[in-house]
Amino acid sequence: MLKVRQAKPPAPSRRAFLGGATVAAGALVIGFTLDPAKLAKAAAGPDLSALPAMPNAFVRIAADDTVTVVIKHLDMGQGNTTGLATILAEELDADWATIRTTFAPADATLYNNFAFGPVQGTGGSTAVANSWFQLRKAGAAARAMLVAAAAEKWKVPASEITVESGTVRHPASNRQARFGELAEAAAAQPVPKEPRLKNASQFKLIGSKLPRLDSAAKTDGTAIYSLDIRRPGQLTAVVAHSPRFGGTVKSVDDKAARAVAGVVDVVTIPTGVAVLARDTWSAMKGRDALKVTWDDAAAETRSSDAILADHRRRLETPGLVASNKGDAKGAIAGSAKVLEAEFTFPYLAHAAMEPLNVTIERASDGSYDVFAGCQFQTVEQAVIAANLGVTTDKVRLNTQWAGGSFGRRATPSADYFAEVATIMRATGGKAPVHLVWTREDDMAGGYYRPMVVHRLRAGLDAKGAITGWEHRMIGKSIMIGTPFETVIVKDGVDATTVEGASDTPYALPAYHFEVHNAREGVPVLWWRSVGHSHTAQAMEVFIDELAHAAGADPVAYRLGLLGGAPRLSATLKLAAEKAGWDPKKASDKGRGLGVAAHESFGSYVAMVADVTAEAGKVKVNRIVAAVDVGVAVNPDVIRAQVEGAVGFALSSVLRNKITLKDGVVQERNFDSYAPTRMSEMPVVEVHIVPSQAAPTGIGEPGVPVIAPAISNAIFAATGQRLRSLPLDLDGLKGA
């Protein structure tokens, strides 16, 4: 089992920063590594004709002037390749037209995510945040080496040389050279360990609306996704999994499956029965022909209603204390008014556009090449190696574009990577194997956002001020039992379960928060915004209820509790201002405004929803969002991510849920788990708070605030509270 130790990200000013440079075919490669020995070995003579041949490199400047930035994070559509390349190109003073990107190989000593410790991976909206200084230094070092090479060639002081848009100039002598002309000479220069970085006032690329680097290829079809991979002699594998979680194969009759044209082999593996064929359709038809008897002795056989009822029963008893301040129970007992509320949240599927898939190919030397949308490279590499009985250096990951993830490709167990490895082992490595999970496979047998129940109770004094707040919740822990447990779980409390509630920014005089770790057999995983996806709904709807009970304006009430959270306050004020929030303005019948504000992953988001709700129907007309993500590396990508968050989450607000009947998932595809339709999309306005703070993430923070903003708008429009998700619109009939 992969063991993960906790590691704090080093301070930017003291971050380990060692450099290496080498030359081949007139190319300059700048690298940064925490291991000088590995750097020296890599610099001893690698083939730089194709990346990633230099695994310690963050930037390669070729003789043809192209600048290739090595991206250590997976791009699942969120646009981080553009953002990360922008950071490096800014300090390099590169010509944006020459920028290219490539995904890094698996090597946590070089490409670890500082937020994850010694693990390479993408998640938690950390890509830009943890690469900010690292890539700025990489770009600045390369720039300094180009300047040094030019100064040496022209016999002039380096201080007299300027760099702009991929060209190095000496104005006094009117000499200039493109990056490619200096690449070979620059590679011979020493790599500065602490290169000088720009001031924000000098930024030309950062903060501007640069076109995404991947848009053209994704539009014309030349971008290669994991599902596009085709290796010589490749076989496609699909797996028959138990219809119930925890079920195992008791017996299998594969005679009919083997008779299907195109089917090459059928093998039983720990997770089910794999059918291998020359194409996907034949593999699926072969799987349909299997006759499998399943053993459900250890399977989850309950329906969703039974699991929810068990959750509610457990909430009657005390849980683990996740947060405590003062005597909340006593404060509530002496209150002038007491409010209580329950919020329930169903299982949710990730439902990414590109189904899960991975290809593995055995090389002649016994090593393996893996092609996939790799999100947790360190875990995936280790799991494949363990299942194939080889060391990790024998497993090469080739990260491809991924058509969405929302957390699903980042399993701590690397589940489908383990599965393809077991198929490769069972078939003796005779042919490359492309494992494909159909959408039905993943939606009915994958991982889900946990089913969660929150119960809240708070008191108000005679003036409407909060006296105390009690909060109890239950949900299955994502991290308990995984390699990450020692890092994220403390005293039984999983930080990803309680985030957004146990650390509320509201100044509550007395607060007590307890959590139960549920024990159902349904596998759970982080879903876009993880714990915040439910804690924000509970916190922001309940704070709205308290505001109305106090006879206060919801925005003003929140601001009165956010004295210690100036950035969230500023974001809330901006959203309210841009939405035209006016508590004195009468709303049209059946139409109302709702507000919510929440911090997640170091970013601050506030939204105002304009909703029409009548006769059991809800139409979200407009969403006005304000976001504070520190320095806005690419404002257009930030806006796109917030707009995308609205589209992603709206269907979970209005209808989506995963339900079980006798342990069998009922929703299997987009017909029964419908995504947001274009006709449902509201007008979305995104306003970015100017900031000089180090950048944070935006891939997830837009999701948590949508549901409570809509819920609160429905109350403003109808006077009826809809707390649980998805919203029970039938309750609005007659509104």
Helices and strands in order:
Layout: E1 18-24, E2 27-33, H1 36-42, E3 57-61, E4 67-71, H2 80-92, E5 99-103, H3 108-111, H4 127-154, E6 162-164, E7 167-170, E8 175-178, H5 179-187, H6 215-220, E9 235-240, E10 248-253, H7 255-258, E11 263-269, E12 272-277, H8 280-289, E13 291-295, H9 304-314, E14 320-325, H10 328-333, E15 337-345, E16 357-362, E17 368-372, H11 377-388, E18 395-399, H12 415-426, E19 433-436, H13 439-445, E20 452-460, E21 466-475, H14 485-488, E22 489-490, E23 493-494, H15 495-498, E24 511-517, H16 532-549, H17 554-561, H18 566-579, E25 591-600, E26 603-614, E27 617-628, H19 635-654, E28 660-661, E29 664-665, E30 683-688, H20 706-718
Parallel strand pairs: 4-5, 9-19, 17-18, 21-24, 27-30
Antiparallel strand pairs: 1-2, 2-3, 3-4, 6-7, 7-8, 9-12, 10-13, 11-12, 14-24, 15-20, 16-17, 16-19, 20-21, 22-23, 25-26, 26-27, 28-29
Helix pairs in contact: 2-4, 4-5, 11-12, 16-20
Write up this protein.
With 735 residues, the chain is of the alpha+beta class. It is built from 20 helices and 30 strands.
- CA distance, first residue to last residue: 56 Å
> How many individual helices?
20
Beta-strand segment tally? 30
Overall mean confidence score, pLDDT: 92
Oligomer: single chain
Classify the helix fraction into a percent range.
25-40%
Give a short overview.
With 735 residues, this protein is α+β, with helices and mostly antiparallel strands. It has 20 helices and 30 strands.
